[in-house]
Each structure stands twice: as C-alpha cells, then as structure tokens.
Amino acid sequence: MINRRTLTKALGAAAVVTTASGAGIAQADPAPHEPPGRRGRYLIKGGSVVTVDPALGTLPRGDVLVDDGRIEAVGRNLPARGAKIIDATDMIVMPGFVNTHYHMWSALGRNYIADGFGYFAAKRATSTHYEPRDFYNSVLLGLVELVNAGVTTVHNWSNNTRTPAHADAELRAHRDAMVRARYSYGHIDQMPREQPVDFTDLDRVRRQYFPGGTAFDGLVHFGINLRGLSQSTEAAFITDMEAAMGRGLPVAIHAGQAPPRIVDAADYERRGWLGPNVLLCHYITALDSDMEILARTRTPLAWSTHSEFRLGSAGDPRDTLLRLRRAGVSVSLSSDATSIAPPDMFETMRLTWNTGIPWQGTPSATLPEIGFRDVLTMATINGARALGLGDATGSLTVGKRADIILIRTNDVNIAPIANIETTVVQSATPANVDTVLVDGRILKRGGKLVAYDVDKLVRNVKASSLRIRTAAGGILTPPPEA
Q: Signal sequence span per UniProt (predicted)?
C-alpha cells in the first residue's frame, strides 16, 4: 500500500527524490518525510498545544519535540538540534484520538442499510459472505479512514472471525496500516447461541503474532471479545468467559442497549470478571448499583454515542451517561459499526457534548452537564486507559509514544479560533486534520494521506462490496450497471 507514486501524488508539485529504500522524500517540504515506516526526529513548532496532561494543560503557543517515536519535550521555544521542523503555526496540536469499539470487518458495509432494513438485518444478510480478502480490504479501509480523521488508536472488535484465514487477513491490514490498535478475536457471527466459542485459532494467533505480547513493532496488542448474554445462552457465556479469563488476555463484552438487563455487575464481581482488563460497551441498562461497582473495580466503559441513541431502547442515553459520570466510571468514546455511525471522533465528541445535559424527570436532573474538556478526555486519555495503553498514548506527555495530530485553524469552518478546546469539539472535522503521526511515523501530511495507495484501496473495497452484495441478494442486489 506504500509506494513512491502515492507519495509523489500526495506531496503535489514538490520535487521528489528517491532514497536507497525507494521511498519518496519531498525536498521542498519544510518538514521532509522520513521514508514511510521510519520514525524521524521532528520539532512540531508554534502551535496551540492541547496536551490532555493535567500537569501541562493547554498551551496557547508551544512546541513538541519527537525523536524515534517518543515525545522528548513539550514547551515553549524548544531547541531543534538535528530535528526537522513541522510548522504548526495556526494549528492545534494534540494527541490522536482513541476509538475503543469498532467492528472493522464490516467497515465497507457502511451504506448497506436502508429504510426498513436496519443494522441487524444488513449484518445478517451479509456477514456469512465476507471472504478473507474482503476482511483485509474492509479493515484497511477502516484504518485508513481513521488516520485521515485523526484517530491514532483503535479497538478492532472483531465479532465475525470466520476462519483462521479471516483473522490473518485482518492482521495483515493492521500491519500495513501502521496504526496503534487492540485486535480482539471473537466469535463467528450467527453461530448457535448454545455453542461455546472454539478458542483453538485464537491460541494460534496469539502464539504466531503476539509471542512477546505485541505485534508489528509494538503497535498492536491482543484481546478477546465475547458475545455476552445477548447472543449466547448463560451456559455458553460462562464457558466462554471462564476460558477467556483463564488466558489472562483483555476481555471486551457488549453489555446491552435494550431490555432486559443482561449484565449484573454484582454477579460479575463475585465471579472475578471485572477490573481494568475488562471493557464493557453500551450498558444503557445499568442500575446505579452496577455503575458503583464498575467505578470501584475500575472497569472501563466504551460509549458509542450514535449507536446508544439509534439502538438504545432501554431508556434515554443522556440519563445513563450522566449517571455513569456521577458514579465515577471511566467512559471512553467509540463508533460501533459504520452502518450506525461514522468513525469520526469529531462528530462523536460533538454529539456527546450536545446531548450531555441533565434530563428533567430523571435521576440526572441535578447532575452537571458534560463540557468540552470532558469529551476531549473521553476521546483521548480515557480511551487509552480503557485499552491498557495509558502509559503509551492518549496525552502529549514526555516519554509517551508520538501519536499526534495537527488541526488547521484557518479553514473556513473553523476560523476564527477562540477557546482552543471548544474549537476542537465544536468546529473541527476530518477535513481540517493536516498532519497525523502514529508512533512517530508521518501517515498524513498537508491534508493528504501519504502512507497509503488510496485509489487502489477504494478499487479493492468496491470490488469486495459488489461481490458481497451480489451474494447477499435481495435489497442489496447491485443494479445491472454496477
């Protein structure tokens, strides 16, 4: 996916030379690129810096020094010895976003739903027709879109791992995208409710790809996601959960958006199933007592704002979210699936802020509303902590990995900037993301994706989608001219 032609196109009219590795470097660029896949020494200079670090706060003007993928310094007028300058004038510099719940295998199915043919109907019609090559194309599409939108870490909640070849295809996409991630191996969609998950291939993937705990130069770590009681019998779920916990891997579970209440936090705590290594998603059905237990056991929650409103029939999500915050639960933000919500953290933050108000007639009526800093925290450091990566990413803290984004503030939909944090949440969009570094590697620069052959990727996902729609038939049948 990375080649000289892609870099030449992305860097426009700048003169391009070829290094010994064959990668293109633009000589006219004030911050020349290292060959894709390499980390450089950069001084990101003169931007408005949102560190999400309580000790550093937000700097109206500041610099960030990056060396070999590590944040070396944050401050004013930093020395630039040996560093290539990235001019951040009129830009906001901040940590990349963290998406803690994204079913990436179906990213290419974003437009499969229709009136009267919703998310679950579309998933049932298509999930069995994805071949390994479709998984590769779909996951890579999702990862590249995330980079374009300033998301540098994602939890790939793979809830349709059909064969070993499908798992391998997803992991190849992670290798090629160079994005920080957790890959959570899961069940086969539509498998019988009473059938426990077969962990044979999960163990194979762990041995083959993650013998030291991480894969692909430390960017990807491994986890398990389970069906929960919404898709399995109690006996099957207990079997699955005990097998997962026994492996000592991070576990992720859907906790329910609709009645009945399928997660009893007190029961989970008695069984030893809660804690920082367990991530719950949704949980609109949670009682106040459930929330207190999650906070006490430091069990994080992934909140998919669009999905909670679209699919959450257990009550008003505004009320649930405010009560979760009152209880002290660590809440992160996520997108769920592309046919429910775009994997766009700007839009997710904005919707969370707009709906994060007390609701009269509910227990939330006297609770404080959600602020701009709150949603920025949910979208960055809370997400990193939820994935066990709080020491590596989620804030611009010295010693952490350089997962950094730059947002232009002179674009017509943002200017004029006033409050910096408000600007990020209220005005910015993926189109304003100028530069993205993951682990010190530049993947987007000058508003262009420079590490991927986007044209080829789009051709591939269109071919996959056409084949899947043809196989599914019915409302998804492509027109003859397709």
A: 1-28
Q: How many angstroms separate the CA atoms of 93 and 19, rounded?
A: 29
Domain boundaries, the chain: 4-95+394-451, 97-386
CATH superfamily of 4-95+394-451: Urease, subunit C, domain 1 (2.30.40.10)
Domain 97-386: which topology? Answer: TIM Barrel (3.20.20)
pTM score of the predicted model: 0.92
Rounded to the nearest 10 degrees, how much is the dihedral formed by the CA atoms of 421, 425, 428, 431?
A: 120
45 DSSP β-pair partners:
87
Please give the Cα distance from 125 to 71 (Å, whole number). 46
Length reported for the chain: 482
Q: Is the peptide bond before 60 cis (omega within 30 degrees of 0)?
A: no
Taking the C-alpha atoms of residue 243 and residue 353, their distance in angstroms, rounded to an integer, is 39
Quote the CA–CA distance of 476 and 167 in Å, as a whole number.
26
> Roughly what angle, to the nearest 10 degrees, separates helices 132-148 and 164-177?
30
> Phi and psi dihedrals of 204, rounded to 5?
-65, -45
Q: Residue 101: helix, strand or coil by DSSP? A: strand
Could you tell me which of 88, 92, 442, 101 has the C-alpha nearest to residue 305? 101
Q: Exposed, middle or buried: residue 54 (CB in 10 Å: 0-12, 13-18, 19+)?
A: exposed
The SS3 assignment for 403 reads coil
Do the domains 4-95+394-451 and 97-386 sit in the same CATH topology, yes or no? Answer: no
What are the structure tokens assigned to 366, written together?
Answer: 């006297």
Q: Please report, as a single letter, which amino acid is at residue 407.
A: I
